[in-house]
Amino acid sequence: MKAVRHLITGLAVSAALATSALAAGVDVNASSTGLGLQGYDPVAYFTQGKPTKGNWKITATYNDATYRFASEEHKAKFEANPGAYLPQYGGYCAFGAAMGFKFDGDPNLWKIVKNKLYLNISQDIQKEWEGKTAQFIPQANDKWIKIVDKEPAELLAQ
């Protein structure tokens, strides 16, 4: 776990500069233009089992973030039930949330656990998180309540 703490410290510096929760507010990880999931289709993780870039012409806005979809069918599914498809912790890194931080979630580093989508920031973190999801998910859920309304940089300064 000590090695993971060192990894998080290193990631914290780069993530503080890269975290992009500006347009949509601090509870959703979106680009400065408000694009959620870096343009990946949130529904595709569940229907196609892989990250899939969305089409810039097929979009929907939810919680002040714009999401792109690979098809009109995916857009309709999302609009009918956004909560079923959105990544947990606003698209921030699930492991980071478990540690009380907000780091960018990488749409290519993902896992669905009990019908919920989780993202992580790096392959090393993803591997650590996947080995202990039963521990980290409840921990992240508890921490998220405390950090949801805080700026990522504010959490790093503590």
Which short descriptors sum up this protein?
42% helix; 158 residues; 7 helices; two-stranded antiparallel ribbon; alpha+beta
Describe this structure in words.
Residues 1-23 form the signal peptide. It comes from Cohaesibacter gelatinilyticus. The chain has 158 residues and is of the alpha+beta class. It has one domain. It has helices spanning 2-18, 44-47, 72-80, 94-99, 123-131, 133-147, 152-157; strands spanning 55-62, 65-69, 106-113, 116-120. The strands form 2 sheets. Strands 1-2 form a two-stranded antiparallel sheet. A two-stranded antiparallel sheet has the order 3-4. β3 and β4 (116-120) form a beta hairpin. The radius of gyration is 15 Å and the shape is globular.
The class by helix and strand makeup works out as: alpha+beta
Strand content: 15-25%
Oligomer: single chain
The number of domains: 1
Sheet with the most strands, sense and barrel status: 2 strands, antiparallel
Radius of gyration: 15 Å
- Report the helical percentage: 40-55%
Distance between termini? 20 Å
DSSP summary, beta strand count = 4
Structural shape: globular
- Walk across the major sheet and give the strand order: 1-2
* Number of helices, counting only DSSP H or I runs of 4 residues or more: 7
Uncertain ranges: 12-24
Compute the average pLDDT.
Answer: 87
Please write the string of helix (H) and strand (E) elements: HHEEHHEEHHH
